[in-house]
C-alpha cells in the first residue's frame, strides 16, 4: 500500500486510488453525527445555491451548510458538531440531510471524478478507516488534508493525515505535540475566542476526539446526487448506528 499525501482543493482534484478526504474542523466530524442521530440519507452538495434549492423543494429535508464558515441563508444550522449534538436524535431521525461545506464537501466532489473510492476522513473515524483500508489493501491511498477553506494547509487536517498514516504503516505520531500544534493556531483559536455564534467554543473539543465512531463513510454518485453512506463497521465496539440495510452500498 502506497501512501500519498496531498492538500487542499488542488490535492483533491489530483488524488489517486482510494482517497481519504480529511476535514476535521468540521465537515467530517459532522457527517458521522448525522447517522449517529438516525438520519436516513446524506447528500453532499458543493454548490450552495443548489443546496438551498434542494431545501426549498423538500422542506422536510435538513440543510446543514456554510460558505467560508458563515451559515447558508436558508440552512437549518451551520456546519457545527455542537449544534448538531444540541438538536439530537429527535431532530434528525429518518430525515434526509443536505450538507454543504467550503472545504470537505467541495473536496469530496473534486476527488470523486478520479478516485477509485472517496472516504470521509476525521479523527473521529480514523481507526475504523485504517482497519477498512488494511483489509482492502488498495495499491494507492491518497490522504487529502483539505485545510482552511480548501486553500491553505491547516494543522488539524495535516495532523489527522499523520494519525492515519501512523495507523496504516506505523509512522511516528505524538498526540501531545499534535495538540500543541493545533490548539494555538488560528483554525482552532477562532472557535475558542467565542466571538461568533456559528463558531462554538465546543467544536474543537468534539472534532479532536479520536476514534469516537466505529464506521467508515464513503461518498458515491447515485441518481444525480453525491451521497455519503456507511460502508464498513468495526466489530465489537460501540459507535455509529448503521443506516437500514437498503440505505447502504453493497460491496
In words, what does this structure look like?
Strand 9 (215-222) and strand 10 form a beta hairpin. This protein is of the alpha/beta class and 251 residues long. The strands form two sheets. The chain has a six-stranded mixed β-sheet with strand order 1-8-2-7-9-10, with helices on both faces. The two termini are 20 Å apart. It has a single domain (2-241), classed as putative 2-phosphosulfolactate phosphatase. It is 37% helix and 22% strand.
Layout of SSEs?
Elements: E1 2-7, H1 8-13, E2 18-22, H2 27-36, E3 41-44, H3 48-57, E4 62-67, E5 70-71, H4 81-87, H5 89-92, E6 96-100, H6 104-111, E7 117-121, H7 126-136, E8 140-145, H8 155-169, H9 175-183, H10 186-192, H11 203-207, E9 215-222, E10 225-233
Parallel strand pairs: 1-8, 2-7, 2-8, 3-6, 4-6
Antiparallel strand pairs: 4-5, 7-9, 9-10
Helix pairs in contact: 7-8
Name its key features.
251 residues; 4-stranded mixed beta sheet; 6-stranded mixed beta sheet; alpha/beta
Count every helix, treating DSSP H or I runs of 4 or more residues as helices: 11
What name does the CATH topology carry?
putative 2-phosphosulfolactate phosphatase
Q: Which CATH architecture?
A: Alpha-Beta Complex
Distance between the termini: 20 Å
The number of strands is 10
Largest sheet: 6 strands, mixed
Could you say which overall geometry the principal axes of the C-alpha atoms support? globular
Structural class: alpha/beta
